[in-house]
Write a structure and sequence with these properties.
The chain is an alpha/beta fold and 247 residues long. Helices cover 44% and strands 17% of the residues. Strand 6, helix 8 and strand 7 form a beta-alpha-beta unit.
Length: 247
Amino acid sequence: MVEDARSHPVFSKLKVTGDVNIGSYIGVPILFSDGSVVGTLCGIDPQPRHFAAQEVQYMQVLARMMGAILEKRHGIISRTLAPANSTLKATQSMLQDVLDSGKKRQTQLPVGVSGQSSARQIAIRPTVLLVDDSPVNRKRLNDWLSEAGYSVLDLKPPYQASQVAQIALQYNAALVVVADSEPLEERVEFVRQIRHNPALLKLPILYMLQQRVNSIKAYYAGASRCLINSVDQALFIDEARKLTGQS
């Protein structure tokens, strides 16, 4: 998202920004079910503006629907056509739910109005990505987050920062929970690479430490908050809610 294209260090220098009169821009990747990116669903406004959370949700759902339609129409993976149909029906239903909720609230949110609570208002649970090498820890954190009302994507190792970044954008993730690994430098570098994506600079990252001394490296790499792995459920969920604006 670019809220003010004319002052953006990259967009302001593009000829198309002036030719098309782009004041602000939002783009969401269109993906097939195998994770391959096939395009981008874009929206522009001639005026600089803030994109509310619900508007991002609209774009997210439409992009998923377009990916399912394209995958079905072109028969990219014919043997998985049934899952593509299922995805299409699910995204159509999700879009209708979002639109129905928006009508009930008469929601054309004005420019500059924050949509911090819109995820709860439209009954879409905040998505959390879970990155942890330990099956035991993953299950424990997964259970805690699910009980607290989050939708958890339990990613299995090995982890690649580029793939996790793509998933975070695709699902409009509200939080990434990352746990220490051995060697520590690999997981710290993983966080650093996530932060290299301009679209994820503000994405909250909760880093779970094996040793408190590692927090310096984690914060330096871009972690938003660090907790010890042995933390209790109440403190963990409290921090997750603070980071996702649910508290």
